[in-house]
Write a structure and sequence with these properties.
The protein is of the alpha/beta class. It folds into five domains: 106 residues, no CATH class; 347 residues, 3-Layer(aba) Sandwich (Rossmann fold); 133 residues, Glucose Oxidase, domain 1; 34 residues, no CATH class; 102 residues, Immunoglobulin-like, CATH 2.60.40. It has 20 helices and 38 strands. The strands form ten sheets. It has a seven-stranded parallel beta sheet, with helices on both faces. A seven-stranded mixed beta sheet has the order 17-16-22-18-19-20-21. Helix 9 packs parallel to helix 10. The protein is globular and about 90 Å long. The chain starts with a helix and ends with a strand. The structure holds 2-acetamido-2-deoxy-beta-D-glucopyranose (7 copies). The site of one 2-acetamido-2-deoxy-beta-D-glucopyranose (NAG) has 6 residues, from strand 32, strand 34 and strand 36. Its main location: secreted.
């Protein structure tokens, strides 16, 4: 189910995009040109071709069925790093000719993706005085590549005061283009490129009305995610006075490179898979350390057809960490980007809220949600409630009489849907302000174009009781622009965050981790009208956005800090550190709750838990995974040779034991519906000691009813750093009545390391 929040979670050009569900272009029978990504086996490249691109061009030129002569426009991109192959415009008969070549490995029809859209560093426990920030020098010398909508380079968040010099290994560039020139890059923003061939080949236009033909950001999304990951410190940032404070990225010392792959174009806002792949290919070639992706394609696509999964494995093989948003579908079985080599991020709330305060004539004071941007005060205004007419009481379309409500604050009954229509009606009728109630739907900040408060429905009833009890109900005072901290409970799993099990492979727990994704303040493009206030449009340099799009760059920033501290850690080791130190407990010391139900959430919603950067720096033990382990994993999935070769981009490999059980820091038992109990599943794992030389770890088990858990051995002794120990975890399920049951394995040593892994049983 899509909530209002999801649809409005991006600005106009983007929320249109959010409605476009990725759909694979079907092959047409007529000889029409379509874009295909062609995966080739590079071992077939004749030595006579000096580059892959010349081989690709020659292959295309040789297609005999071509009814038009091969021209420069046929080939869109030649890929060499994320995948070997190219994207091209082809007719169906040309495609079938290509597919007959021995060098052909796989075909992916073009598809289109969607986006998943300054207090958060403090909420994550980041401090200047101690912990990972100073230890990591704020992410110095690490390069984060953003695959997104572009960047607004003039934003103060990308100033390079105090930044270290550009690492010598960097090969990226800053492109010239519309309203963009290489001189806009600096020591913070060290690369900026754009990829639009696939978008344009698919009929998309880059018109000046909607977007810039350059890495410049039209929508604000890429500027927001980039400044969240690695924005410099900016004092005095706020969203029209809300959330005022110092805006800073999670890794303010890290360098940024933007790869623009999403294009806004009125009715054809799109990100084409061929462009996303080109952006990732370039990021790998340029030498980024981390790739952050806040967009995704159809979540049901198996790895061998998923270009983000394939390109990410190629990145991982080169030691590049890939962090992706899990999606904003809010439903179970809907996580995107869940390949086990990717860090998949869900969105949590933070302990901050934006409120307005209402005092009634009887002295009752109530707070409600408001993002109304002006700090005006309403005093001694009559309160209007259309109590004898249901249309008026619910502020239905065109129901209010301007002569009745003018100069008054209007109370509207809850109707079960969101309040945006009511707000429009109250504003149309010329009232002074509005009081609404809702427990379910949250409106995006830019909808609050009038003095409006949204109360919890029980508070709304209090106001209604007051109105009914007197003939002269009054609002004594209504005040706006109040930011409150310390809200409890926090974090919660946001209602829009995509939940597991992963639709492609329920056997690996996804999402991996929860990070702040609601009401995140970060930089946007500065000149864009963010709010329509009737007579005025207001623009802001910093804005509050929500989405798993916002959560992923928080984790990308944390991985940059970890990379700065532990340059030798593999992407899997960094993910392990983040997962095994995460917390499933909120600020009321209870299990993190689900915002949608207010009930305790499970690892299917929060993964290993909420990210804790300071602890991740010193996890004690690491569950590492090597490239060959992923190959064994793919063999264990029962993929055929062609499918495996598509994912690992090789024609030769061997599988020793077809182990679909990866050395993952979480455990999932998939229980088929008609199972015979008890059901036993054994997992084997190997942990590496990266903590103190002399450490003795004891297994502490947190066992739910219906499950029995054993480890063999249950003590792991280490005498030095880098030592490895294996263990078996045996899970016996005697019954399972809920759709999900879970416990924890915690390895605890004498130096306060707690290495925690969720053990989850799901029925499918
Ligand atoms: C940079 O791009 C702009 C706009 O496309 C163009 O007018 C200008 O000539 C370009 N400059 C260079 C040096 O290519
Ligand atoms: C792109 O622009 C061309 C020329 O302005 C126009 O004919 C075409 O309809 C546009 N395509 C889309 C998809 O907007
Ligand atoms: C209620 O108000 C609406 C809109 O102002 C009006 O059309 C309708 O006649 C009213 N109904 C009653 C029963 O008065
Ligand atoms: C409101 O006014 C009406 C008519 O003047 C009167 O009958 C009623 O008692 C008053 N109600 C209250 C709660 O004062
Ligand atoms: C999840 O989605 C997949 C793919 O659509 C489907 O095959 C599977 O049955 C779903 N699983 C659950 C638990 O709903
Ligand atoms: C792995 O699976 C493949 C295909 O099912 C099979 O041919 C091969 O013998 C298996 N290897 C091992 C070591 O089990
Ligand atoms: C699973 O582990 C348990 C406990 O270590 C052991 O008794 C059992 O034989 C194992 N089962 C399999 C199938 O390996």
């Amino acid at each position: 189910m899509k909530t209002v929040k999801e649809l409005l979670s991006h600005h106009f050009c983007l929320w249109l995009l959010a409605l476009l569900v990725a759909n694979n272009t079907t092959m047409s029978t007529s000889e029409e040109y379509q874009t295909y990504i062609i995966h080739m086996d590079q071992s077939y490249k004749p030595a006579s071709f000096s580059t892959h691109e010349s081989w690709h061009r020659s292959t295309l030129a040789s297609l005999s069925s071509s009814d038009t002569i091969y021209d420069e426009k046929t080939l869109l991109y030649s890929y060499n790093h994320a995948m070997h192959g190219f994207s091209a415009r082809l007719t169906p008969s040309q495609l079938s000719e290509l597919e007959k070549l021995q060098a052909h490995r796989a075909t992916y029809p073009e598809s289109y993706g969607k986006l998943f859209t300054t207090h958060t560093p403090k909420f994550l426990g980041l401090k200047h005085s101690s912990g990972i920030w100073p230890t990591a020098s704020y992410g110095k010398d690490v390069i984060i590549g953003m695959i997104d909508t572009g960047i607004w380079p003039e934003s103060n968040s990308f100033n390079d005061k105090g930044m270290s010099s550009i690492p010598g290994r960097w090969k990226g560039i800053c492109e010239n283009g519309t309203a963009f020139s290489p001189s806009l890059c600096n020591l913070k923003l060290i690369g900026a490129r754009s990829f639009s061939k696939g978008y344009q080949a698919g009929g998309g236009n880059i018109s000046t009305e909607f977007d810039y033909d350059s890495p410049r950001d039209c929508t604000g999304h890429g500027t927001h995610t980039s400044s969240t990951a690695a924005g410099s410190n900016v004092v005095g940032a706020g969203h029209f006075g809300y959330a005022m404070g110092t805006a800073q990225g999670i890794a303010p010392g890290a360098h940024l490179a933007m790869y623009k792959v999403l294009w806004a174009g009125g009715e054809s806002d799109k990100s084409a898979a061929s462009d996303v792949l080109a952006g990732m290919d370039q990021a790998i070639a340029d030498g980024v350390d981390i790739i952050s992706i806040s967009l995704g394609f159809d979540e049901h696509t198996p790895y061998f057809n998923d270009v983000i999964a394939i390109a990410s494995l190629s990145a991982i093989e080169k030691g590049i960490i890939v962090v992706c948003a899990a999606g904003n579908d809010g439903a179970s079985n809907s996580t995107h980007n869940g390949a086990p080599w990717i860090i998949t991020v869900g969105a949590g709330t933070v302990d901050r809220s934006f409120v307005g305060r209402l005092t009634l004539g009887n002295g009752l004071t109530i707070e409600g949600t408001s993002y109304f941007p002006l700090s005006i005060l309403i005093r001694n205004a009559p309160l209007y409630y259309g109590e004898n007419n249901i249309s008026k009481a619910t502020c239905a379309f065109s129901s209010l009489d301007p002569t009745e409500v003018s100069g008054k604050v209007v109370l509207c009954d809850y109707t079960g849907s969101d309040n945006s229509g009511q707000m429009e009606e109250v504003q149309r009728a010329g009232a002074l302000g509005g009081i609404f109630s809702n427990d379910k739907f949250i409106l995006e900040p830019e909808i609050y174009s009038m003095p409006a408060l949204i109360l919890q429905s029980r508070d709304g009833s209090l106001v209604k009781n007051y109105v009914m009890s007197t003939n002269s109900s009054m609002v004594k005072e209504m005040k706006f622009v109040i930011t409150k901290l310390g809200i409890k409970p926090a974090p919660q799993v946001t209602d829009f965050s995509s939940r597991g099990p992963d639709p492609v492979n329920p056997g690996v727990l996804k999402p991996d981790i929860l990070a702040p994704g609601q009401d995140v303040l970060a930089a946007v493009r500065a000149d864009k009208p963010e709010m329509d206030m009737g007579m005025y449009t207001l623009a802001t340099d910093y804005a509050i956005y929500s989405g798993t799009s916002m959560a992923a760059p928080h984790v990308a920033g944390v991985t940059a800090l970890l990379k700065a501290v532990h340059q030798d850690w593999s992407p899997a080791a960094i993910r392990s550190a983040i997962m095994t130190t995460a917390s499933s407990i909120d600020n009321t010391y209870s299990t993190i709750t689900d915002q949608a139900t207010e009930l305790p959430a499970t690892p299917l919603e929060f993964g290993a838990g909420h990210i804790n950067p300071n602890k991740a720096m010193d996890p004690g033990l690491i569950y590492d995974i090597h490239f060959q382990d992923y190959v064994e994993f793919l063999c264990g999935l029962g993929y055929n040779n062609k499918q495996i070769s598509a994912v690992i981009r090789r024609s030769q490999w061997s599988c020793r034991d077809n182990a679909s059980d990866l050395n993952y820091p979480s455990f999932v038992v998939v229980v088929p519906k008609a199972s015979i109990y008890p059901l036993v599943m054994n997992f084997t794992r190997v942990v590496t000691n990266i903590g103190d030389d002399d450490s003795i770890y004891q297994a502490v088990l947190d066992v739910p009813s219906g499950m029995r858990i054993q480890t063999e051995p249950n003590t792991l002794s280490f005498t030095g750093k880098g030592q490895q120990q294996g263990f078996t975890l045996s899970v016996e399920i005697s019954e399972i009545d809920a759709s999900v049951t879970y416990g924890y394995l915690k390895w605890v040593d004498q130096h306060n390391h707690v290495v925690s892994s969720p053990i989850v049983a799901i029925t499918v």
